[in-house]
Structures are given as structure tokens and as C-alpha cells.
Amino acid sequence: MSPVTPSLSRLHPDTRLWASGAAQGGAWTSQAPVPGATSPDAPALTVFQHDLHMAWRAEDSTDSIWFSSTGDGETWETPWNLPYVGTSEQPALCAVNETLYLAWKGAGREQNIYWSTSADGHKWEDQQILGGAETSRSPSLVAFHGVLRAFWRGGEHLITSNQNLYLSVRGETGWSAPIVLPGMASVESPAVAVLGDTLYLAHRGTKAPLDNDKWIRLWSSGNGVAWTSRANPAEAYTDLAPALAADNGTLHLVWKSASGPEIWYSPFDGDQTWQPPARVAAFETACSPALCDFRPTAGTSEVFLAWRGSTL
After folding, report:
1. pTM of this structure
2. What's the pLDDT at 296?
């Protein structure tokens, strides 16, 4: 990727979507914008049919969802969109076998969760509602033991804010009824990833009038039902949702700083040891970052980061 250095002025928001890769979370490649991709929110990432796919909310009144993909982490396809749908948040992507899944919160104040499937990443089936689910943030998707799982935080209304975290499992007969995750609550979306035979979930804390808990917590599950609190990353706190990805025996966590636009990174060995947080180059964002394990057809990047810009 050719290096790009954005201006440091704080006068105007940079709504471009940026991308960078790192071999084993080491030295990140120079950041580069994804051509034609701008959004008021963060993008979503997943690998499908050997390519890295990105989805994002449109930067216009349609609130539609747009896509692009890359096979090498550098050259992106011309963006295409999913017509007649809308969202007010970051969408979610996940591949299960030969099917690509997309999930999103409704547009505006609507808090239903919608989902759709695609066999090629371009043509999508009609949207459907995930029954019983309500959220004020983006849902999250993950494939665990070959089964799709959706996670989300509760809805938000005029005088109530349900910050519990929920799970639904996609089975042969449809989605399961929403399940409350005991002991887990967050004002933002949870992040999920699978390392080996273990499912991991990370989230920031809750928000109340007199308490704004920005610390990131980590949980794990061997069966997707029973959860265990794990060692939390040191000095990791954020005002938004974190992002997780797993690659080659390591769990990778990234987050936006709670006090500025900086992006921070810490790897976890899957047991008890977190590496000290390190800033991800000079990259900056105004939203949650997105993270994905990706081995391009040309190049060595194995952890891929995408984010919406901060300011120009």
C-alpha cells in the first residue's frame, strides 16, 4: 500500500474508510483509503471465498449498506450496494461454509435486527427480521463450531436503557429465542472471535448518569453456553465498542482510545497473558475499528484492520 498522511487539522470529519494489515500484529502497513468508501460509522470485515469483504453504512440519507472486496488487501473492487435496506449503525458480516451472512440494526430509531444471506457477496436474499431481538447498536456475528451466532446489546427507549448482552443461535429451524448473557452488560456492541475451540467476547462497560465504565472486559466459552470471565487487558479502556480477531494461536484486540482518536492494540495468548497495549501506528478514528484475520493471495498480512477516519 502506498503511504497516505492525512492532515492533522481538526476542522472537518474524515469519513473515508481506511485499511492496513500487519503480519502477526507486528509492523502495520501504511494506511490507505478504500476507494469510494465513506461512512459516518465503522465498517465490518470478514473473509469469504478467499477474499476480504467489507460492508458499511452509506454516508447519505438512504442509510443503505455498501460493499467492496479485495483479494490482496490492496486492490478493492468498485463498491456495490444492497438496495431497499437501511441502518443507523455499523453492519455485521460473517461467513459460514459457502454462505455469507449480513446483519444490521434498522434505520433511524427502529431497533429491530435484520439479516440476509448471499452465495457470492453481491446478490442478497430478501431481508428478514431476527425475531425477539431489539438493539440500539450494531449486532455482531461469529461462526462457532460451524454454527452462526448473533450477539447484541439491548434496546434503548425514552426512559430506559437495556444494556444487557444477548445471544441467538442460527439452527436448522431458524434462530433461537434471545438468550441473556449472565453478568455481561455494555452500552456498546460486543466483539466476538473464535480461537481454537474457544469463543471469546469482549465489551466495554455500562453507562449511567453517575457512572461511565469504559474498561474492556474479556469472556470465553468452550460451548457457547457457559461463560468464564478472563484476564482483562491492562489499561484498555474505550468509549466505543472494541474489535477482536484470532489468528495463529493469538487473540487480537483493538480499540479506540477513550480520550482521543488513537487506535490501540494488544494481543492475548488465550490463557492469561496480555501484551502491553501499543498504539497502532499513527492511525486515528472517530468510530470503533474493525479487525479480521486475512491471508491475502499476494502479501503477508495476517491481521487486517479497517476504520473510519477521524478529522481532516
Report:
1. 0.94
2. 86
